[in-house]
UniProtKB/TrEMBL annotation:
The keyword Membrane applies. One of its GO terms (biological process) is phosphate ion transport. The keyword Transferase does not apply. Coiled coil: none annotated. It is found in: Cell membrane. Keywords: Cell membrane, Lipoprotein, Membrane, Palmitate, Phosphate transport, Signal, Transport. Belongs to the PstS family. Residues 49-278 form the PBP domain. It comes from Salicibibacter kimchii. This is Phosphate-binding protein. One of its GO terms (molecular function) is phosphate ion binding. It comes from the Bacteria. One of its GO terms (cellular component) is plasma membrane.
Length: 293
């Protein structure tokens, strides 16, 4: 009897109560689906929303681009604060080595003795040889630039200009721009002792803009109408010529990291953004060359 009753009960559930059970199961499934969807949305929001600090220090040539990239990144990550400071490429590499910054910014390749770190290019930059806009000289051979900066050529008349002494403007020791310029232009030659030393890209630009007889060098991305960029061996310092190699006074903009330390989630997200299409668009909008080209 017990088994019969049980069987009868089962039949009644199937016949009379089956609809209710199916509805309950359907409602439970729907609730579970909604909960899963809510969890998925929550997980996506957690992945998209970060909180913390990212620090970059180093090259003053890279600094303005870093600031623009930071501003664009923080629009999508308002709880992340990206702090950018200068100090020179050497200081940037040191900061990466000792872990005092998430990224050291260097406007040159790493030196052989700069160990324990690795570099990631974020942009390509040309180094423009600049003069005052009123200077009639618009094109120099690379060899002439070498001779000017080493003191072999001292008067503009020797390269087709006015009879005026050349005022040589250079960057300070530790500057990535100076290191790259030295490698590409000076080589084994020593910088002329009379060179006026400036400690930032802006200071070089100001010195040249205020002296019709001055010559300097700076990032092509930092040039404005206050100075003129000279053609070198007939090639203008344009993005197209830099990319093709026709204008060969160029260098990478690198973010340097410690090889033995993992990046924080926020720092890695910032670098991923820089290397994305959106980040490289910021690079190009600031007159630098994308590493994707």
């Amino acid at each position: 009897m017990i088994m019969v009753l049980a069987a009868c009960g089962g039949d009644e559930s199937s016949a009379d109560g089956g609809g209710d059970t199916g509805e309950e199961e359907t409602e439970e499934s729907a609730d579970e689906g909604e909960e899963a969807a809510d969890n998925g949305e929550s997980n996506d929001n957690e992945a998209a929303s970060l909180e913390g600090d990212v620090t970059i220090t180093g090259s003053t040539s890279v600094q303005p681009l870093s600031e623009e990239l930071a501003a664009a990144f923080m629009e999508g990550q308002p709880d992340v604060r990206v702090e950018v400071s200068g100090g020179g490429s050497g200081a940037g590499v040191t900061a990466a080595q000792d872990g005092s910054a998430d990224y050291g910014a260097a406007s040159r390749e790493l030196e052989e003795d700069e160990t324990g770190v690795e570099a990631t290019p974020i942009a390509i930059d040309g180094i423009a040889i600049v003069t005052h806009p009123d200077n009639p000289v618009s094109d120099l051979a690379l060899e002439d630039v070498t001779d000017i900066y080493s003191g072999e050529i001292t008067n503009w008349s020797e390269v087709g200009g006015d009879d005026q002494d050349i005022v040589v403007v250079s960057r300070e020791d530790g500057s990535g721009t100076r290191d790259a310029f030295t490698d590409i232009v000076l080589g084994d030659e020593a910088l002329v002792d009379s060179a006026l030393i400036q400690n930032s890209t802006g200071a070089v630009s100001e010195s040249v803009a205020n002296d019709p007889n001055a010559i300097g060098y700076m990032s092509t991305g930092s040039m404005d109408d206050s100075v003129q960029g000279l053609a070198i061996d007939g090639a203008e310092p344009t993005d197209e010529n830099i990319s093709s190699g026709e204008y060969d006074v160029s260098r990478p903009f690198n973010y340097v990291t410690n090889e033995e330390e993992s990046s924080t989630e926020e720092a890695q997200a910032f670098l991923d953004f820089i290397l994305s299409d959106e980040g490289q668009e910021v690079v190009e909008d600031n007159d630098f060359i994308s590493v994707e080209e």
